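Dig into my protein:

:::
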Amino acid sequence: MKKNIWIIWAAGILLLAACQKEENKGTDSPVFSEIPNGGFECFSHAESDKYYSLYDPASADSTLQNKWWCTGNKGSTTLSAKYSVTMPDYEDKVEGNSSLKLASTYVVIKFAAGNVFTGEYVETNLLKGSGTINFGRPFNERPAKLKLWLKYKSGVITEKTLNDKPAGDPVKVGDKDRASVWIALGDWDYRLYGGTASCPVQVNTADKSTFFDPYSEDVIAYGRLILEDDTDGWIQLEIPLEYRSERTPTHIIISAAASMLGDYFTGSAESILWLDDLKLE
């Protein structure tokens, strides 16, 4: 009788261990840091009454007290707050209280794309009609992908909003605009790229030689999504990261634009890209 009891007890222990192993199977996957304000719930007028910033120094959450995301609003609103290109949308969202709305527009004499990026806006050059930004935020992990919700409405490119384009791009007047979202991990040296220790990669829209190069030897991983058509409402997508090196990153760049060729001041003033719930996995 005791022998039978022992056998039943041992079988029970083995069954319990098997169940626990099954339950824990998914927890072996690495857990990556949350993207600060990745759900776009935090906004303030910390920098200007003309536009929204994506952080709040008065927030009870310390991760939201300092700037991580930035936009081109500082440049586009130089003349008026009505030219803001990135703002919260409290009506159209996936979850929480808000999403991020990137709305391209035409600012007096120049096209401006709705945009958001990790980094900081440095300055506007009114004489050249250009802007300077620094890309990047400190980051030392190796995620496999960027997961996000988005919605896109593409406008038509007009003669007024077709300025310049990269070599080989066939875009022309009458074409539908395209949106883009991309992510890069790298170990860029700010002393070589013109930025700062926190945001190392400087881009000046008046100087194409400074435009971000995804094929640079300092890029450890890269992934890009291009939207060529309107979406049917909100959709969830993944952007896989293609790794090119075993090196550990020092910084992360995430950039999104309602008009893919915004750096070239080309797109549609009717294009809108909404983003919500960004995560690294």
